[in-house]
């Protein structure tokens, strides 16, 4: 098997673990011992690959056939299939995966568009020219607002449209500090609308979030995201003010 196809096969192996039937899983788990360091390292490698590729949408693969291929490769045996057969089969699996992923992406995009269209009808929700939607939860009469070049300290909770939380500084109990130019466009724009001490809820279209390139399986591609954000501080403005005072005192 060519090395270019080997990487694909390893990925398919991990994903196949998701689709295997319960009987296969039970047999593997009870018959495989993890007593030695080598066995534990082997298990750890398989677990890591499986976790990384869990979200790949490939169905119908056989755990037994994958195990047979691995056994043959480790034993130095010749492939039971021709290179042409291997290439054709792997390409078929990849094409099926792409079709399924595209369908999921399209469905997520449509769901987000429909949600935003309805959400925009609420009196409490405002929509910017970019399509970003926001709702003021706690307002302040005065206070500093960040610029795109500033760093900010915030508490936030990020959710999908179904309400599931994918990230939360509130749950961790530790505020997050970052530069606005380093985050998704919806955050860069939205945080500049806020004053220190305010809480907003942002409804961020996929094109102002991660689009089709999600950084984590917890956020499906083309997801519209909901963030509740509290602006706690603007550290960069304090730093700049301190430098100005120091220069004036010299």
Task: Outline the structure in words.
With 250 residues, this protein is an alpha+beta fold. The protein has two domains: 3-102, no CATH class; 122-240, Chitinase A, domain 3. It has helices at 3-19, 22-31, 37-52, 63-74, 83-119, 169-172, 185-191, 235-249; strands at 125-127, 133-138, 151-159, 165-168, 176-179, 199-204, 225-233. Strands 1, 2, 3, 4, 5, 6 and 7 form a seven-stranded antiparallel sheet that branches. β3 and β4 (165-168) form a beta hairpin. α1 crosses α3. The chain is elongated, with a radius of gyration of 25 Å. The relative contact order is 0.11.
**What is the level-2 CATH architecture name of the largest domain?**
Roll
N-to-C span: 71 Å
Number of helices: 8
Strand tally is 7
Q: What is the approximate shape?
A: elongated
Tally of separate domains: 2
Which percent range describes the beta-strand content?
15-25%
CATH topology of the largest domain: Chitinase A, domain 3
Low-confidence residue ranges: 1-27
Mean pLDDT level: 84
- The CATH class of the largest domain, by name, is Alpha Beta
User: Helix amount, in percent?
Assistant: 40-55%
In terms of structural class, how would the helical and strand content be classed? Answer: alpha+beta
The helix-strand sequence is HHHHHEEEEHEHEEH
The main sheet comes to:
7 strands, antiparallel
Catalytic activity: [protein]-peptidylproline (omega=180) = [protein]-peptidylproline (omega=0)
EC number: 5.2.1.8
Organism: Thiopseudomonas alkaliphila
Family: Belongs to the FKBP-type PPIase family.
